[in-house]
Amino acid sequence: MPMLEKIKNYFRGSAYQNTQGTTIFPVWNGRRVVVDAGGDLVFLTCMEVLAKNVAQIQWGLYGTDNKEIENTMAMFQRTLNLEPYPGINAYDFWRNMEIQRLAYGNAYAYICYDKATLLKCLVPLDAAQMKVYWDNANILDGARKIIYEYTDAVNGHKYTILPEEIIHVKAFSNNGIVGRKAIAVLGDTLQSNADVESSLRSNVANGFDGTIVLSYTSDLSASKQKQLQAQIQALLSNSGNKILPLPAGMTATNIKNDIKSYYDTLKTANAQAISAFFGIPLVMLNIGGGAGMATFSTNQLQQFYNGTIAPVIRQYAIELTTKLLTERQANKGYRFDDASDVFDRLDAQGKAQVLATYTGAGILTPNEARASLQYPRSEDPAADKLSQRGGTGMLGDSPANEGGQKKEEGE
Question: Which of 36, 60, 330, 353 has the most Cβ atoms closer than 10 angstroms to its Cβ?
């Protein structure tokens, strides 16, 4: 727009249309601040909590006797637990997989083998660039039911991938074939949160909150009233204006609309809905005040793991078992599972109590308990033996042999 037209519009009191695509709204409408529903802090925090838990998994290979198969696991150790893809460590890789699973409903990694058919790496794929086709019309004569098509965002090339060539974990799936985005499932809740945030920010940006009532003694026509209203609102729309100039005999009163308490209540209810959807207690999100995690008991932490984290790990474990092991290995009962110390999910006091109980009940040896605490092994031979009755006797001893001291006959 020519400068002359801008000057004319300035004196006319109207706004102009920016030729670069930015809309300048009339001042009497105020400025609307739009907040993206996907930027909800509670939503993002819940995703981060789940992603961090998955990222800490140490994968192991186990048999039907629950013993780790170390020789076979050695072939997968570097790829699964150290560096799945060159330049990406295991923590970042699995964290990104879980973020993609929740954000897009699906997470993918291409399985790459070397010439000796040994697992070489897992290639992370952008879920936004993947399409999944289900051959329900039998176009492929029953040869393939599911086909993946991946588009390289850099060069535009399309790649066809078979189900056995890809790790695919899903979230919130309706059909077991593809997942759904968390933001789509929580659409209404997240949008209402975004509306709340937008309204509050708009009030701040416009420099006022509520309704301004002007009191004056003279009589104004309808057109003059609108002109006065536009002038006052133009002044209020600039948050930098701290002083409102008024003619003599005119007063302005702010009738505040108390909407913040309503918005706070709505956002609290929505935060509860989002955390419940992800299965994450509010105290883990530092919401609700109080002592936070200090009052979170060992039982509650275990419930969180069993109800929220364990099912996610189970899905990853089944996918790794199905895609990385041979049919013969799978038929023998080999399976991938989390090799992390189960007691690490407890707080220090809870862990000490459980280990002491398990050691005294003959479930763990003292050296196994020390290993859980990352203490060095004890050289005492008794440290590798199971005890009973609170540690006063070795497993299999009779009560008469308390403490392992066998009594002589006749004593």
Answer: 60
Which residues, 6 or more positions from 62, have their beta carbon under 8 angstroms from its beta carbon? 68, 69, 334, 335, 336, 337
Q: Which domain holds residue 7?
A: 1-30
Write the DSSP symbol of residue 342: G
Q: Does residue 408 contact residue 397 with C-beta atoms inside 8 Å?
A: no
Q: Is residue 278 part of a domain?
A: no
The amino acid sitting at 287 is I
Q: Does residue 352 form part of some domain?
A: yes
Structure tokens belonging to residue 185: 């499932």
Which ranges constitute the DSSP H helices of 82-169? Answer: 90-104
Burial class (CB in 10 A: 0-12, 13-18, 19+), 101: buried
Rounded CA gap, 221 and 86, in Å?
Answer: 76
pLDDT in tens, 13-48: 443 333 443 333 333 334 444 444 455 778 888 999
Name the token pair of 367: 């050296």
Structural domain count, the chain: 3
3-state secondary structure of 223: helix
pTM equals 0.69
CA distance 410 to 293: 59
